[in-house]
């Protein structure tokens, strides 16, 4: 029917929480500390639409390589204007790639990354 959410395990919970809420502007829907797992679980949304579960775990393994390792390649967010979003993220200290053109749709997009080097794409709708 649809994708319910995407789960991300981060290496530094406070850094990633700040990144996804303060830099990207996602809303905190729920935050729970699970004592038995020594883990935070942070539910994040775009508006009230639940999109990301951010987890912390003690000593998670690092991502093997970027971005062509097996598994999730990147997360893509729809934006109204990639030029505006790119400039906004640069002003917040992110290193953003140059804007590209999708060869199939003709739409503009660019990549940056989260604090754990997870590739993030911003795609103009």
UniProtKB/TrEMBL annotation:
<dbReference type="InterPro" id="IPR037523">
    <property type="entry name" value="VOC_core"/>
</dbReference>
<protein>
    <submittedName>
        <fullName>VOC family protein</fullName>
    </submittedName>
</protein>
<dbReference type="InterPro" id="IPR029068">
    <property type="entry name" value="Glyas_Bleomycin-R_OHBP_Dase"/>
</dbReference>
<dbReference type="InterPro" id="IPR051332">
    <property type="entry name" value="Fosfomycin_Res_Enzymes"/>
</dbReference>
<keyword id="KW-0479">Metal-binding</keyword>
<dbReference type="InterPro" id="IPR004360">
    <property type="entry name" value="Glyas_Fos-R_dOase_dom"/>
</dbReference>
<dbReference type="Pfam" id="PF00903">
    <property type="entry name" value="Glyoxalase"/>
</dbReference>
<dbReference type="InterPro" id="IPR037478">
    <property type="entry name" value="YwkD-like_dom"/>
</dbReference>
<feature type="domain" description="VOC">
    <location>
        <begin position="2"/>
        <end position="125"/>
    </location>
</feature>
